[in-house]
Amino acid sequence: MALPCVRLGAVRFRTAALLRCLCQSSSHHAATATEEIELPRRKTWDKTAVLQALAYTVNHDPTSASYTFQDDPYLIPSMSTDYKLYSMAKESGKNAAKYIVNMYPDLFQKDLAEPHIPCLMPESIQPQIESVSEAALSERINLRRVKESVDLFDQLLQGGTTPSLEITNKLLDLVCFYGDREPSTDEQQQQLEDNESENSKKKNVPQKGLPAKMTWRPNNNAERIFNLMPERNAHSYRTLIRGMVKHGAYAQAFGMYTDLLNNRFTGDVSTFNALILAAPETKPEVKDKCALIVDLLNHMVQQKVTPNLLTFNAVLKSLRRIGPAVKGMAMQTLMEMKALHIDPSLGTYCHLLGVHYRPGDSLAQSQLLASILGQTQGRSFTAEDPDDALFFGEAMRVCLEAKDLDLAYELHKLMNTGDNWRLLGKPSQEFAYYGRLFHIVCMMENTNVVLKWYRDLVPSRYYPTSKGFQNLLQVLEMENRLELIPELWKDIKRIGHSNKDYLLEEVLNLMASAKQPAELQAAFADTATSIKSVYDSSENSKHQMKASAAASGNIAILLTRAGRLEEAWKILKSFQAKHLVPRSNVITELLDGAKAAGSRAVAVDLVHLAVSFSLPDTAQIAQRVLDDFTLTEEQRISLQDLTQSSGTSSSSSSSSDSDHD
User: Fold this and answer.
1) Sign of the C-alpha dihedral, residues 632, 634, 638, 640?
2) d(CA 17, CA 15)
3) Rounded distance, CA 556 to CA 529, Å?
4) Would you say 144 and 208 are in contact if contact means Cβ atoms under 8 Å apart?
5) Which of 452, 370, 382, 463 is nearest to 421 (CA)?
6) Helix axes 269-278, 286-302, angle to 10 degrees
7) By the 8 A CB rule, do 559 and 571 touch?
8) How far is the CA of 619 from the CAs of 130, 184, 589, in angstroms?
9) What is the pLDDT of residues 345-367, one digit of tens each?
10) Are the C-beta atoms of 489 and 524 separated by less than 8 Å?
11) What is the DSSP string of 512-581?
């Protein structure tokens, strides 16, 4: 019992000694200097700090679905096609609920939340001011009602009231941002542009000439409002320039920039960023495009406009469209960023990889990516540019094309650092990243490692495509791990790839490639029966799948090896109705099964079936039945006749062939 007292006394002694040291130190400082001791300010925590700390204590569960579907377990997707559909449905449901709440706020008067949470209460999205006034115009601009705002602006002018310059500039901002269209139309257009961008990336084509199509209509409301303004300031010109670039009117944007300079105004950093993006589309030659970008940068220096990260990313994005001939200029841009102490973002590195893209030559990109990962390893990034979400997918494509597994592992390590996983982008971009990672693992690793990655990624982060399953089947074939095929077939069926003919035939070919132990052969037969049911059920569906002669023959072989001879014989008899011709090895396998089962009736029927299909080795099949089975006299005579007739026909055909030669 004395031990705690001893410890407590020691603590008190150390505390007293520390206080004496502090007092001596403070008196010494008071005597030698007049500096005051500044106590550190109280640490302020984010409202979600506790939740973030708890989130870091939870490990990833590879058996669960993606975190985005945990709120509704009944809508957890089980197939790859459902993932995108459910994601869009969930987002659409959120938007619909938000629309109803904001459109009809009178239906949600009760506030049951304690304490009161303002962000969860409905917002008024209906105009409250009905009069024709500047206040009503400001209200409609804030509600992003493009057509109503333009109409009200015209009514004010017709009534003799000129809106103030500030309100007119806000209206110009709204019209230029949405391209003189309602917001819904603009969002659909943006979705189309995103789809075009994704299609180009699937083809591994650099984003050359990918800016938006010309959606800037001549003499639209933006230009009309600009021309009607009695006075204009720099903001008016800058807004119109950015709107023209956003909607594809690149030549008009540079013309408006000339007007801005003629009126003795200067551009801001956003204006120059937009013009730099438009520069490659206004000049035909590479030399002229680069010169225009340099001129714009010089204009920024002359007008004392400080560039930011988006400025340099715009330069690199424009150089990416020009092509690999400007790699030197891209590296100079990166050095200029370092000189100005501007840290590159992931979007910067993505554009650098795009500049170094050359079809068929991935060495330059892989070397550059290795250098990038060497500088960024261990860092946690935040989103600073919309193009930051493109880096991981683009970098993993480089690893796949270069077949550099170590580089892919380094990239994956960076992605798992901190919150970098949030920068994987949209579900389609996340799928592309994991699909490429799984592809390179299948190419370069052994079966055990591949299966470990498969269990970690599926289905929580990745739903394999049919190509992914085909790669996995090839890995099992190379290392002779065919015992895993029955379980893999269940995943193929569950994830929704049982409608791929080539994938079903690949599974059947591997199972029928060699004889296996009885237990595994029985599992193969069950898998073959499941595949047969898929073919049978598709005959009455919209997307019909017809089993080929090879697929049906493999099903018959697998059933025969498992001792299910009657089922195999039924499949073989259906060949005539389906106008299919069996291979000779199918007949041979069934003969082996008939011999093991002692079924001479099936053996004789097989010979007759071979005759009906005019198989070239019918005589050998008949002779084998004569030698290996105990037949009746009538069966023996009929088979001998078949043997002789087949031999005669084969000899006559060979002689005719020799005469022809």
Assistant:
1) positive
2) 5
3) 10
4) no
5) 382
6) 170
7) yes
8) 96, 74, 16
9) 999 999 999 998 887 778 888 99
10) no
11) TSS---HHHHHHHHHHHHHHHHHHHHHTTSSS--PPPHHHHHHHHHHHHHTT-HHHHHHHHHTTTTTT--
Contacts of 162 (CB under 8 A, 6+ apart): 156, 230
Look at the block and give the residue holding tokens 């001596």: 24
d(CA 326, CA 333): 11
Alpha-helical regions (H) of 104-233: 134-142, 146-158, 165-178, 183-202, 221-228
Handedness of CA 51, 54, 56, 62 (dihedral sign): negative
Using CA atoms, how far residue 153 sits from 144, 174, 199, 627, in Å, is 14, 13, 41, 101
Token pair belonging to 475: 């890995």
Domain boundary assignment for the chain: 129-196+204-265
pLDDT digits (tens, 9 = 90+) for 547-601: 888 999 999 999 999 989 888 888 888 887 788 888 888 888 888 888 888 888 8
Closest CA to 568 of 614, 612, 521, 638: 521
Provide the whole-model pTM: 0.79
The position carrying tokens 């550190």 is 40
Instruction: Read off the amino acid at residue 568.
Output: A
Asked if omega into 211 is within 30° of 0 (cis), the reply is no
Q: What are phi and psi of 172, to 5 degrees?
A: -65, -40
Distance, in Å, from the CA atom of 661 to the CA atom of 535, rounded to the nearest integer, reads 44
